[in-house]
Design goal:
It contains 9 helices and 34 strands. The chain has 572 residues and is an alpha+beta fold.
Length: 572
Amino acid sequence: MSFGFPWGLLAMGALVPLAAAYFLRRRQKPVTVSALFLWRTPRPRAEAGPRFERFTREASLLLEALAVVAAALFLADVRWSEDTRARHVVLVVDGSLSLSARGADGVTVLERVRREAAKRVEEERATRVTLLASGSVPRVVAGPEAEPSKALGALESFQALGPDHDVTATLLWAQELAGPGRHVHFLTDVMPVEEAVVPPAVRWTALGEAGDNAALVSAQRRDEGTTATVTLRVARFGGPETVEVRVRAQPGPGAREGTEQREEVRLPAEGAATVRFTFENAGDVEVMLPRDALPEDGQARLVHSAVRPVRVALAEGLDAQARQALERFLAVAPEVETGPGEGALLIGPRGTDARVTVGAGGTLRTFLGPFFSEKGHPLLDDVQLAGVRWTAGDNPAGRALVTAGDAVLLSEEEGRVHLNLELSRSNLQRTPAWPVLLGNMLREARRAREGFPRRQLTLGEPLPVVTEPGARYTLEGPLGERPVFGAGALSLPAPLVPGRYTLERDGEPVDVTEVLALDARESELRGRSSGEREAEAEETGESSQGASDRARWPLWVLLGALLADFYVTRRR
């Protein structure tokens, strides 16, 4: 049992005067008369004074005491079960990066959101709280229907570091969790635009503050040998026209100490300024801008991102023309290792199990065009076949990528590529299309290697990863560890927060990538504001009617006790 208003129990103090009234009697002295008309004028004054004596109307006293107790329980807002008397409040917090911005008083918008959330929970007298965070993928921060203290505790550890996104999906989800006729509280840093579609049950509260900000909008690193080149783009969203960019490189292999470079950059009013830094034998590189309203978008950590070499092996059985043409290309191709080895891209003659087969069999035919290519396929990027003389044999298996008439010149079959080409009677190897085609094959082979194809990503970008079959993979990030299902080239959902993500195979690290807190739309703080937009729909839930949410059964007990007491007293 619990009480919503314990002071109401003071009404039970009425039991004391009630019991005293039953014990306190006034006895009249008997008067003897000879006629009934003389009874009309009895002496109004009793000869005997007040006296306490045992009473005989116990039933009436108990009924009246029961009425007093029922009235006190109603005033005290008695509650027998928290489940049946629960007050559920749904809060939605904007998970965008801009909520980490600091105002003129040094307090972040997220801290204001935490205070406002605690205030709403207290005002609504919530017994259960569901806390959601909006984002490209909405998530539950606390709940559903968690205790208020646990929900507010989870909000204290929540960090708003997500990209710009549409909040409509989160608000609709929150409305379903709240139930029909109940309001949803949305806390953010900007009022909705006029054309925005806001669900009618949402109470929109903006706690932002306009401010100036300088931010990184792009950060890239490329390693070639021992040289690391860092390219940055810095934008100004109000504030000073110049900013100092500080880049610090940690010592890499063979280096004893790190290096630091600084440069004063002049920022245009619109667009961004580009600046480059070069380091030798550098490990991780940290980029820093001066602290301003949003420090998070002025920091970046860039990991080593050298182009991973591809090992290529030529199988036995290739004819002399094909082997010679392939060896000439591999001799000048960058980041290529030749010779057999684990994971090598094997190129062999037609009819073998090599990943790339070159050769023609059966009846040979020469084609001068027109050639039809499958648009958008990565193997055919920038491959121009104008002026090519192509001699092909019988059609290979797989899906056709390049055709001439009814002949299939290039096909793909379950990850294998078949090049239907007789080089001794063709001129493809002497045209620009030959190195471009082979370069595309190497690029796709590089992308198919285990790990992350990209080492730097920005907020909101999907996370590409390549896994091998037969192994158990997990992704370790700032929000913890989660399994990775599937094999081959995968595209995981965009990470919710920035930071370093590590791919592990059977518990051992395989590769790392860094997700950067960069989003030009979130760095624009000049349009942030504060305000309130009340919900258009009225709240119709029973628990929203203030005092009317009290239990009704004490009133029925009170009424029943008074009626029973009237019946007992009247009968006697």
